[in-house]
Design goal:
It is a single chain. The protein is of the alpha+beta class and about 140 residues long. It folds into two domains: about 45 residues; about 70 residues, Thrombin, subunit H, CATH 2.40.10. It starts with a helix and ends in a 13-residue tail after the last strand.
């Protein structure tokens, strides 16, 4: 066999190997993408939102992961009943309260600019408080 033919066969072999390697890489990428899609599709996020909304709990800030602040299952407060709302209880802290409370299983969780996180029952009775930082200046005032 001539030297030229040997070099051509080696070259052809290298090209075939490269093509095969690229095909295997491409198939591997397809398998990985399919696995990711299968895993992500397996965990329905909407069902979690619907369960929280239908139960009336607001387990996180603004009610859900989408931060809509809306509960389509709400029937107690409507445009015709909103004028009947009144303050049920108040709580004083060493700073302003500018957070939205989160209520879960009869406990209301909220923070204050005095550096504490609080938990109260639905009547405003303190269950616990814990410092989470040093007191911060009241950023809600205009500082005239």
């Amino acid at each position: 066999m001539s030297k030229r033919r040997v070099l051509m066969r080696q070259s052809e072999s290298k090209v075939k190997w490269r093509v095969m390697r690229h095909r295997v890489s491409f198939i591997g990428m397809i398998v990985i993408v399919a696995a990711v899609v299968a895993v992500v599709g397996h965990f329905p996020r909407q069902a979690v939102h619907s369960a929280a909304a239908s139960s009336g709990d607001w387990p996180m800030y603004l009610g859900n992961n989408a931060r809509t602040g809306y509960n389509n299952a709400e029937t107690a407060i409507t445009a015709t009943t909103a004028h009947n709302l009144k303050v049920h209880w108040t709580y004083s802290t060493g700073g302003a309260i500018s957070t939205q409370p989160v209520e879960v299983n009869g406990t209301v969780y909220w923070g204050s600019w005095d550096g504490n996180e609080y938990a109260t029952d639905l009547s405003g009775n303190k269950i616990w408080s814990t410092p989470i930082s040093t007191a911060t200046p009241d950023c809600t005032s205009t500082g005239s």
